[in-house]
Write a structure and sequence with these properties.
- With about 240 residues, the chain is of the alpha+beta class.
- It folds into two domains: about 55 residues, Roll (Structural Genomics Hypothetical 15.5 Kd Protein In mrcA-pckA Intergenic Region, Chain A), CATH 3.10.290.10; about 170 residues, Pseudouridine synthase (2-Layer Sandwich).
- The protein contains seven helices and 17 strands.
- The strands form four sheets. Strands 7, 8, 9, 10, 13, 14, 15, 16 and 17 form a nine-stranded mixed beta sheet that branches. A four-stranded antiparallel beta sheet has the order 3-2-5-6.
- The radius of gyration is 22 Å and the shape is elongated.
- The mean pLDDT is about 90.
């Protein structure tokens, strides 16, 4: 059993820091297993203790995994002095120290972005060696053809960069679904540019086998379920696949 100071346990679950946790404890607002905690240095097993603040349970978790429907114009970053970030959009009850966006979406790209404090999972999800596929919906400035789809399937070179084969499914005159397992800077835009078209709108729909929750409005977030956390690293792909 690994025990920790209760002020450390509390501060690990939010962004307010240990001083704020100590203030809550000294004010008598924190209970552990039904008993009011009086000292910040009292120790408990974080995996076994039931902590409440003002009578409301505190959900203790080592890591958190949050799905956000990223809106246009927001940076995929933890902090920025000049622009709003995805972390800024999180509701107060979801914020905790160490959160970061796993990977990035361009400022004008929307859709599913994962926010977590689990660096190991983020690395596995983003590494091309893991072959975790991401699905995007792209809108372009000209009519798309099967020649474009074949070029994507063969792999595309753009200047000094080479992109792995990707699957494209044309869904409309100027729209397509594109599935990739890389995450290079501006990758999809560069791939379309290489075949003579520009992307006018881009949305990420899926990571692994986890689809963007259609009930999330732009800027809204929710925690992933336990099954979705597992499905993030699912290597299966297939542009039409949906559970």
């Amino acid at each position: 059993m690994a025990v920790e100071r209760i002020d450390k346990i509390l501060s690990s679950q939010n962004t307010e820091g240990r001083s704020a946790a100590k203030a809550l404890i000294k004010a008598g607002r924190v209970t552990a297993d039904g008993r009011t905690v009086r000292r910040p240095d009292e120790k408990f097993d974080p995996e076994a203790v039931e902590i409440k603040i003002d009578g409301k349970p505190v959900k203790l978790s080592r890591f958190v995994y949050i799905m956000m429907n990223k809106p246009r114009g927001v940076l995929s970053a933890s902090t920025d002095r000049h622009a709003k970030t995805v972390i800024d959009l999180l509701p107060a009850e979801m914020k905790r120290r160490g959160l970061f966006p796993a990977g990035r979406l361009d400022k004008d790209t929307v859709g599913f972005i994962l926010i977590t404090d689990d660096g190991e999972l983020a690395h596995k999800m983003l590494s091309p060696k893991s072959h975790v596929y991401k699905l995007y919906e792209a809108e372009c400035d000209r009519e798309l053809t099967e020649d474009d789809a074949r070029a994507f399937a063969e792999g595309i070179s753009a200047g000094s960069e080479a992109f792995m084969p990707a699957e494209m499914k044309i869904t409309g005159e100027k729209t397509a679904l594109v599935e990739i397992c890389e995450g290079k800077f501006h990758q999809i835009k560069k791939m379309f540019h290489a075949v003579g078209t520009e992307v006018t709108a881009l949305k990420r729909l899926r990571i692994g086998q986890v689809f963007l929750d259609e009930n999330l409005a732009p800027g809204e977030s929710r925690y992933l379920t336990e099954q979705e956390i597992v499905d993030l690293l699912d290597r299966k792909h297939g542009i039409c696949h949906k559970n």
